[in-house]
């Protein structure tokens, strides 16, 4: 604790707030609170204004009412009041530029032409309604024409396919060949090529075909295992024989490569056998 206390005592104290700064901070908080309350009061007055206007709109014969361009908060108030009263509220225009709200009665809901016109910033009146109606009519006629052309092209394609699949019968009078094909291939088939000249070919039964019964393995499991073991034993015997043959061949090669050494060894052994024993050998034998 002494170390901690010494560290805290050595540190600089936080700057003290004088009376003027306290007053300034207090004044700023009061201004922020006043501004907040002012905004709340303004929104409450705007909400009351919207409620009164929509109330008058519900009693008259107007199909819709428009509000001036407003920010997002005020438009949200309009939408909330309209939905609470059972009306339709929609906004059009660009945000933070000229976006405004329009309130409709449910029985006079906006048409597709009106929505498109307002989104295109063309407004809405009788002239614009006639213009958009004419555009819609032309568009419908164009779509009907495209559908008719598509149906006609489909029918034509079906007719052509039917004609190709079911061609009209051709009579003998219509068939008039320009030349006889036999004349072209006379050097190959002759002048009298007919079915009588054809030779019936038959498959050769001696090769090429094996009955399926000959392909089946009719052996039992025991017989199959015995055959496998016999094959293994035969293979081992063959390997042993081959190894023995290789060893014999190697021995023969070694014998053929060193005939002189063998002769020298045999001559040395014979000479040693023919020499008499020395005196040292006899003396050693007598001493014992």
Automatic annotation (TrEMBL):
Record domain R3H: where: 44-107
Annotated spans, Disordered: 135-173, 202-221, 233-288
Positions with biased composition (Basic and acidic residues): 135-148
Coiled coil: 18-45
Keywords for this protein: Coiled coil
Alphabetized Pfam families for the sequence: R3H
Domain of life from the UniProt record: Eukaryota
Organism: Glossina palpalis gambiensis
Residue ranges with Low complexity bias: 152-166, 237-246, 270-288
SUPFAM superfamilies given in the database record: R3H domain
InterPro entries listed in its UniProt record: R3H_dom (IPR001374), R3H_dom_sf (IPR036867), SPAG7 (IPR017330)
Protein name: R3H domain-containing protein
Gene Ontology molecular-function annotations: nucleic acid binding
